[in-house]
Amino acid sequence: MQEVLIEHSALSHIKVYDGKGKRLGRAFRVKLWPTLILLRDGQEVARLVRPLLADEVRQLVAHS
């Protein structure tokens, strides 16, 4: 994922941790970690659950 973030430096990356008192992950119905969610104007436009390869993340970014 670091590779893709470097390639697309205009994207913001926010890590959200799950656990007691951490509701943001649940607000987006994240059940499996890591899950990448792309937002535009606060609305979800794409999601990728448990990516293994940088190419999967590249495809997510390219189609959004």
Number of helices: 3
CATH superfamily: Glutaredoxin
Tally of domains? 1
Q: Assign a percent range to the helix content.
A: 25-40%
Find the count of extended strands (DSSP E, 2+ residues). 2
Q: Mind telling me which CATH architecture this is?
A: 3-Layer(aba) Sandwich
Can you summarize the main beta sheet?
A: 2 strands, antiparallel
Order of helix and strand elements from N to C terminus: HHEEH
CATH fold-level assignment: Glutaredoxin
**SS content category:** alpha+beta
Q: Calculate the terminal CA-CA distance, rounded to whole Å.
A: 16 Å
CATH class, named Alpha Beta
Average pLDDT, to the nearest integer?
A: 87
Strand content: 15-25%
Rg measurement, Å = 12 Å
Task: Indicate the low-confidence ranges by residue numbers.
Answer: none
Shape: globular
**Main sheet: strand order:** 1-2
Describe this structure in words.
This protein has 64 residues and is α+β, with helices and mostly antiparallel strands. The chain has one domain (2-62): Glutaredoxin, CATH 3.40.30.10. Helix content is 30%, strand content 20%. It is built from three helices and two strands, in the order ααββα. The protein has a two-stranded antiparallel sheet. Strand 1 and strand 2 form a beta hairpin. It is globular and about 35 Å long.
